[in-house]
């Protein structure tokens, strides 16, 4: 029965860890430690350790979501919604560099970092994937078709040149470079407000 | 109102003796209607510690691993004393109206 108990406790703490994601790291660590200690104390005070006992212990602690909501309130944290900064960053990061070469993307990065709607990890993802946004893949695409002397879009009807395998690799790389900024933008859009911002 | 007063109940419990988390949480939960889920006390404790109203120390336990004990700081004692005065006059004022209407 002990392994079932361990699994229940483990699942509970994992859920709690997930729900507390928005808190500053030190607060999150502290709460997880204390609630793990609480569970250990509770388990130590049980005569046997039936699954029902463990479930009761965890039920009394309450839903991880409630604990996280309470923590957000106690620490003066409020969920953020997208404002003009977030919307502008989401537009400028992928296509800012194309509209206004390099500088447009750079403004997007600045907005990304001054916004408090994203965690540092999200901001790093947004900055590194991919510097310049769609500028690099589009520039490469223009350069490649220009070099081939071919007007057709990539994947179109360009006559194959001497190195077929190299061409395939180049196209694959191009598609990846094109997709990365798009995927990153979708990811960032979904992450807005997942990290509560400090309001007090 | 319950939410705003809960922190003073925690301070009052710690005024008598220092307690470890589990013990403190169970004592609060046993009071009917104070706490619906025990886990929500921990964010409050963390907040009180950050505000300097309580402090915690590790102490050996005879039955298991060391426990984190909480006790009131001087600032915590002052906050509790201030709340006691406020609470008494508030309670009397409410009693004045509520109890009279009932009878």
Per-chain topology:
The complex is a heterodimer of chains A (200) and B (103).
Chain A: H1 2-19, H2 25-44, H3 51-61, H4 64-74, E1 77-78, H5 84-99, H6 103-114, H7 120-128, H8 135-148, H9 164-191, E2 197-198
Antiparallel strand pairs in A: 1-2
Helix pairs in contact in A: 1-2, 1-3, 1-4, 2-3, 5-6, 5-9, 7-9, 8-9
Chain B: H1 2-16, E1 19-20, H2 21-30, H3 41-50, E2 54-59, E3 67-72, H4 74-102
Antiparallel strand pairs in B: 1-3, 2-3
Could you walk me through the main structural features you see in this protein, from its secondary elements to its overall organization?
- The complex is a heterodimer of chains A (200) and B (103).
- Chain A contains nine helices and two strands; from the N terminus they run H-H-H-H-E-H-H-H-H-H-E.
- The model of chain A has no long low-confidence stretch (mean pLDDT 81).
- Chain A has helices at residues 2-19, 25-44, 51-61, 64-74, 84-99, 103-114, 120-128, 135-148, 164-191; strands at 77-78, 197-198.
- Chain A is elongated and about 80 Å long.
- By secondary structure, chain B is of the alpha+beta class.
- Chain B has a three-stranded antiparallel beta sheet.
- At the A-B interface, helix 2 and helix 4 of A face helix 2 and helix 3 of B.
Short description:
The complex is a heterodimer of chains A (200) and B (103). Chain A has 200 residues and is mostly helical. Chain A is built from nine helices and two strands.
Stretches of chain B where pLDDT is under 50 for at least 5 consecutive residues are: none
Largest interface: A-B, 24 and 21 residues
Mean pLDDT of chain A: 81
Q: List the helices and strands of chain A in order.
A: HHHHEHHHHHE
Helix content percent band of chain A: 55-70%
| Biggest β-sheet strands, sense, barrel of chain A | 2 strands, antiparallel
Largest sheet of chain B, if any? 3 strands, antiparallel
Arrangement of strands in the largest sheet of chain A = 1-2
How many H/I helical runs of chain B?
A: 4
Low-confidence stretches of chain A: none
Radius of gyration of chain B: 16 Å
The radius of gyration computed from the alpha-carbon positions of chain A, rounded to a whole number of angstroms, is 25 Å
Mean pLDDT of chain B: 88
Distance between the termini of chain B: 25 Å
Q: Look at the helices and sheets of chain A and give the structural class.
A: mainly alpha
* Helical content band of chain B: 55-70%
Number of H/I helices of chain A: 9
Task: Give me the count of strands of chain A.
Answer: 2
Q: Structural class of the helices, strands and pairings of chain B?
A: alpha+beta
């Amino acid at each position: 029965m002990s392994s079932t108990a361990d699994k229940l406790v483990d699942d509970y703490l994992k859920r709690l860890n997930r729900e507390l994601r928005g808190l500053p790291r030190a607060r999150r660590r502290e709460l997880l430690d204390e609630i793990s200690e609480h569970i250990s104390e509770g388990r130590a005070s049980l005569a046997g350790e039936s699954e029902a006992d463990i479930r009761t212990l965890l039920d009394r602690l309450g839903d991880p979501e409630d604990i996280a909501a309470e923590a957000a309130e106690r620490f003066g944290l409020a969920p953020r919604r997208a404002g003009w900064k977030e919307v502008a960053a989401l537009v400028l990061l992928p296509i800012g560099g194309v509209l206004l070469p390099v500088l447009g993307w750079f403004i997007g990065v600045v907005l990304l970092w001054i916004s408090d709607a994203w965690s540092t990890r999200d901001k790093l993802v947004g900055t590194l994937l991919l510097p310049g946004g769609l500028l690099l893949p589009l520039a490469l695409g223009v350069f490649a078709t220009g070099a081939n002397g071919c007007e057709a879009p990539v994947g179109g009807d360009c006559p194959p040149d001497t190195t077929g395998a190299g061409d395939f690799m180049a196209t694959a790389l191009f598609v990846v470079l094109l997709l990365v900024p798009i995927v990153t933008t979708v990811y960032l859009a979904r992450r807005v407000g997942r990290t509560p911002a400090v309001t007090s | 109102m319950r939410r705003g007063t809960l922190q003073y109940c925690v301070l009052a419990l710690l005024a008598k003796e220092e307690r470890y988390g589990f013990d403190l949480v169970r004592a609060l939960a046993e009071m009917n209607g104070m706490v619906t889920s025990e886990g929500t006390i921990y964010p409050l404790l963390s907040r009180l510690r950050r505000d300097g109203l309580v402090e915690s120390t590790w102490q050996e336990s005879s039955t298991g691993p060391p426990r984190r004990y909480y006790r009131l700081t001087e600032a915590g004692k002052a906050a509790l004393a201030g709340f006691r005065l406020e609470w008494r006059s508030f309670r009397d004022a409410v009693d004045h109206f509520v109890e009279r209407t009932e009878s």
